Amino acid sequence: MLIRFVRMTFQEDRLADFLSIFDASKAKIRVFPGCLHLELLRDLDQPNVRMTHSHWESSEALEAYRQSDLFRTTWAATKVLFADKPVAFSTETVEVVQNAH
To answer: C-alpha angle 84/90/92, rounded to 5°?
Structure first.
């Protein structure tokens, strides 16, 4: 499984525009083949920063999404709202530490 984070800094007056875009596309992204999890996070110290956190079955599933019309149209509408370059990275779980109790 691949875990993807995308950190986005928005122009303060354009954050509402992004939230509308996310609201309109989140259900479609979540049911995209290979998407296992999707959430939107807010930075507690920077109110105009949001992060998406998603889980994908594989790097191929993520790449298929990134090549889709859904991604292309959503990203095109989103990237014009940025105040800074987005930061994206993919990870995989190495270890999960359970509570000993």
So the answer is: 150
Q: How far apart are CA 81 and CA 67, in angstroms?
A: 21
Low-confidence ranges of the chain (pLDDT < 70): none
Burial label, 29 (beta-carbon count in 10 A; 0-12, 13-18, 19+): middle
From residue 74, give the alpha-carbon distance in Å to each of 15, 26, 46.
15, 10, 23
Over 5-50, what HEC string results? EEEEEECHHHHHHHHHHHHHHHHHHHCCCCEEEEEEEECCCCCCEE
pTM beyond 0.85: yes
Three-class SS state of 100: coil
51 residue type, one letter: M
